[in-house]
Amino acid sequence: MDSKDDKYHRRCLKMAENGFGRVATNPLVGAVIVVDGQIIGEGYHAFYGGPHAEANAINSVKDLSLLQKSTLYVNLEPCAHFGKTPPCADLIIEKKIPRVKIGIRDPFPCVAGKGIEKLIAAGIEVEVGFLETENWYINRRFLTYYEKNRPYIILKWAETADGFIDVHRVQNKNNRPTLINDELTLSLVHKWRSEEQAILVGTNTAMLDNPMLNVRSFSGKNPLRMVLDKDLKIPKHYTIFDGLIKTIIFNSLKDEIDGNIVYKKVDFSKLTVEILNYCFSEKIQSILIEGGAKLHSTFINCGMWDEARIFRADVCFGNGVKAADICNVPKKQIQIGNSTLYYYYNY
Q1: Predicted TM-score of the model (pTM)
Q2: Catalytic one among 17, 42, 54, 77?
Q3: Which of 36, 205, 210, 214 fits as disulfide partner to 201, beta carbons 3.0 to 4.6 Å?
């Protein structure tokens, strides 16, 4: 059963979720202000560059005199530095809020305990450590980026009941991928694309499918497109070269920028390290890896993945392209259309 503090922290998390897909590369943050068991103000970080949750919560309070006997709940440590907005710790101090209860510390180097130290130095009563598992999960992309110096990695594929992701196809034969899932699943996948900063596919997927790698069946922001093309053999008339979305071509031949197309030369003998180091340097906090099986296996075999979302449909191919082998036990499953969606976690 939740304690009183947990109840308000859950409200912070609910508020924070409203910024999903709009605040990256900032974290998801919600704040609630309470006096005598009553919520008098609340807010969340709504969009990147906009006011932070604490400021929005304070600004929502009608009687500002109540702040001097209030408790502010926030799921992540208040910032202590000038970024796109002033420090939230300074605002809390200015408004003489006497108590602050924080879900978890912020690992971002400009914060990393400094917000807590500033509040304590001003005589504010500070508690840290509420709903830590839930708080980590909601900001797992942001936290993984700063704790592990790499993006949060999500693998996604659809497979048949007998473990195939496709039949065997030949490029230039105009044979599209054999559909395993239905339209409902497609909408969900496009929603997922809108939630991540980048999407990555391998050469064979790009060559055989000529994919758009954008958001069409859902309303949301297109992710950065990233494609492996070691020898630069993907035809230039393919959709990934349309220039409509910034696209990174990881290759072994050249570094070059051509409008919205960025050629990034990498060492394919240490491919995962090269890709993840590039993403870290470009502040890319999450990647959705959609295919194919060889690319999935590369990340699985070196342990560089955090989450896998696998659709398993009630159809069989008998033979074809085998799905990557993931040994972890699924943590949850959901029936969606003609498929069962399995979630795996590598933590």
Answers
A1: 0.91
A2: 54
A3: 205
